[in-house]
């Protein structure tokens, strides 16, 4: 299975920025044929009751006072990044994990096991993706592998498993920059879900690496947080991409999900 | 495919009766209707889900946005007669705690 083969593709990102960060080069390759669409899953608006104690604590830590303004900024950055990659982006309306009641009430829980009731939400998401206006016969789907174990990433991965189980071709991308700053997390995740994966495949993105880097740079509000482990994000991403390809060629790596 | 019928109840509540799928392909119609109602100075909105076959998260997002706008205008957006699939998504997202849900579209609007 070749993730770069022609055909319609949906690149599913849990949050604004995950796809450009993780596999923007492959998106740009498909976008030259107008076959790529990014879908951001957890892009809901907020009302007061959705902000419980943990979410309120998070908001305080982030100095977040105007939720609507932040959403506008994040969507603007997401649209700009998609534009750089040459494809459209669609925002769905599921609430982030911290706004789904008291299911996750600490950072440990946010990066811990997925709650049992969330598996049903993953099943719903799979059904929803198949009903999107952009869905075509033969559409291939890209989901996060969930390196780093954020529950929203795990939920989207589970939706990918549902789709793969119904015969859809699904690839898991490795979550950057988690995999860059915490490479051991990849081995942990592969141990957890390896039984559902085929052997990894790489896509040569030498030609589109500059687009991926430019797309990542669109997330002005997030860069200092996402890349707090380095003062040169572009170099960190480039170095990692070149570690994946043959002879230092920039590449992105994917794991096909096993089918039915 | 979704159908949307609007009427004003005798008590002044704006009722939107939906049928079919409220999803990414149709959610804009509901968003436009909510915007028009609020622009006309009405802020009590009731959305009847009795004939809705499927709700997705884009539709849910429009409902959350509508609720927020209705509250800012001093009113509310409530849901009536949600089908099992609609209730399931509300429960899975915990938004069943956010919306006031009525058994039917004819029920009295309680303050």
Any key phrases for this structure?
heterodimer, A: 260 residues, alpha/beta, 7-stranded mixed beta sheet, 12% strand, B: 111 residues
Walkthrough of the structure:
The complex is a heterodimer of chains A (260) and B (111). Chain A has eleven helices and seven strands. The model of chain A has no long low-confidence stretch (mean pLDDT 96). Chain A has a seven-stranded mixed sheet, sandwiched between helices. Chain A has 260 residues and is an alpha/beta fold. The longest helix of chain A is centred in the N-terminal third of the chain and has 19 residues, at 67-85. In chain A, helix 1 (18-31) links the parallel strand 1 (9-13) and strand 2 (36-40). In chain A, helix 1 packs parallel to helix 3, helix 1 runs antiparallel to helix 9 and helix 3 runs antiparallel to helix 9. The radius of gyration of chain B is 12 Å and the shape is globular. Chain B is built from three helices and five strands. Helix content of chain B is 34%, strand content 32%. Chain A binds chain B through residues 41, 43-47, 49-50, 90-95, 99-101, 103, 117-118, 120-121, 124-125, 128, 131-133, and chain B through 21, 23-25, 54, 56-62, 64-65, 67-68, 71, 88-89, 92-95, 97-98.
Shape of chain B: globular
Low-confidence stretches of chain B: none
Number of strands of chain A: 7
Strand arrangement within the widest β-sheet of chain A reads 3-2-1-4-5-7-6
Major pleated sheet of chain A: 7 strands, mixed
The spatial strand order of the largest sheet of chain B comes to: 1-2-3-4-5
Secondary structure topology:
The complex is a heterodimer of chains A (260) and B (111).
Chain A (H helix, E strand, L loop, with lengths): L8 E5 L4 H14 L4 E5 L12 H9 L5 H19 L3 E3 L15 H4 L5 H15 L9 E5 L6 H15 L4 E4 L4 H4 L2 H10 L7 E4 L4 H8 L6 H4 L6 H12 L6 E6 L4
Helix pairs in contact in A: 1-3, 1-9, 3-9, 5-6
Chain B lengths: L1 E7 L5 E9 L4 H13 L4 E12 L1 H16 L3 E5 L3 H9 L8 E2 L9
Parallel strand pairs in B: 2-3, 3-4, 4-5
Antiparallel strand pairs in B: 1-2
Helix pairs in contact in B: 1-2
